[in-house]
Fold this protein.
Amino acid sequence: MANRSRPEAVLFDFGGVFLDSPFAAVRAFGEQAGIPDDGVMELVFGRYDADTDHPWHRLERGDIDLATTRQEILDLSQAAGYRIDLFDAFATLVRAGIRDEMVAVAREVRDAGLKSAIVTNNVREFGESWRAMLPVDELFDAIVDSHEIGLRKPDPRIFELALERLGGVAPSRAVFLDDFEGNVAAAERLGMHGILVDHDDWIRAVERLRALLSGASETPL
Ligand SMILES: [Mg+2]
């Protein structure tokens, strides 16, 4: 019974899961700069749960580089009466540390014999720095990075690709952790078990994952 309810694979987002949330960093920047919350999020990230031609979405799909994105978002923000330099907006994130307890649970996933992957909307220019923050080879069987494949969450194909790279795990046997609700919802629509990682209470996500690993979860897979 316990075995039947245990997952076979765990898929982790990176930003906002192992590292502080990029969304929180930008929100804090907006607050400091006197830009309304909705405005700053829309200007930097576009409508994040859609997949559009917003420069940030094109960056995450690997269509344009970081310098171009930085300039386009600066232009967009100036047209709206603000001045948003991405490098300022992400400044607090650059100084943020890794969440050790999340790394610990990723190790427990491996120790339990499960497969694991990172599924990240990411940026070519950040690649080496974020990978250096974690022992990625040790912790994950696969890294699915949006800019390398031209697909970004919440596009369901990115989850399907990740499951395929893990050897064809059924969605119903996989857990997915992300700090963005739209991404979790997309994974759940595929039949995966979603865990939303809350910025202020991320340890709760660790506890929920541990419950699933032990087969003690109230929601059998
Ligand atoms: Mg994230």
About this structure: The beta strands are 9-12, 115-120, 142-145, 174-178, 193-196.
